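Morning run. Coffee first, then this:
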Amino acid sequence: MLPEDIIIEPIITEKSNNELQGGKYTFKVNKKATKVDIARAVEKLFDVRVLDVNTISVPGKQKRVGRSVGMTSSWKKAIVTIDTDPQAKTYLAKGGKTKKVSKSVKNSIDAYGI
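And here it is:
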């Protein structure tokens, strides 16, 4: 599955806007996508480091139009927590020397809400 097929659209509500300061972004995602798929898609599309993914399956509701009764479709929501303070990683290289690797990632999703 392509990252564009996994992330359908952002969810913009009052609660999701309040969580932006904590680095939590809310998306409507494909119902078949797993947490790992969602994390990889967000990292690839928005060039950020994902720390945590929470998913919720939202069931459809019963709606009535005149005499006919129907159901809205069910969908899946994902709340993605990103790293708002990315640090350079250090590790020991050959010979016991410390090496610092800094992968340039963003600390926010700029295209959120478009």
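The chain has one domain: 3-101. Good start to the day.
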